[in-house]
UniProtKB/TrEMBL annotation:
Ferredoxins are iron-sulfur proteins that transfer electrons in a wide variety of metabolic reactions. The keyword Transport applies. The keyword 4Fe-4S applies. Its cofactor is [4Fe-4S] cluster; [3Fe-4S] cluster. This is Ferredoxin. InterPro entries: 4Fe4S_Fe-S-bd, 4Fe4S_Fe_S_CS, 7Fe_ferredoxin, FdxA_Actino, RnfB_subfamily. It comes from the Bacteria. Residues 30-59 form the 4Fe-4S ferredoxin-type domain. Binds 1 [3Fe-4S] cluster.
Length: 105
């Protein structure tokens, strides 16, 4: 899977959403999250993020490794909705992100 890391937090450019052929990039309150089971690893989202927040799971910079966990665990309560557009915007974040002071401002 691909994951979304710290540069997205409090930025949420959303350009990535338009590129994903399977609509697996879900919106939380402060960040977006890629669904680890729905993502087909096409990689289309990665180059369009203006702040370089998106990484293939094996290429996540060391300081942001916890974001792998955040992307995976974000879906523990949601499950696999099968499409972000229909699911809508969530009013919560993974605890790692929710606990952060304002980022990237
Ligand atoms: Fe975030 Fe970049 Fe997408 S800032 S919403 S990962 S385009
Ligand atoms: Fe979609 Fe990016 Fe995965 S475009 S399929 S989230 S690699």
């Amino acid at each position: 899977t691909y994951i979304i890391a710290q540069p997205c937090v409090d930025v949420k450019d959303r350009a990535c959403i338009e590129e994903c052929p399977v609509d697996c990039i879900y919106e939380g309150e402060r960040s977006l999250y890629i669904h680890p089971d729905e993502c087909v690893d096409c990689g289309a989202c990665e180059p369009v993020c203006p702040v370089e927040a998106i990484y293939y799971e094996d290429d996540v910079p060391e300081q942001w490794e916890s974001y792998y966990t955040a992307n995976v665990e974000f879906f523990e309560t949601i499950g696999s909705p099968g499409g972000a557009a229909g699911f809508g915007v969530s009013t919560f974040d993974h605890p790692i992100i929710a606990a952060l002071p304002p980022q990237n401002t």
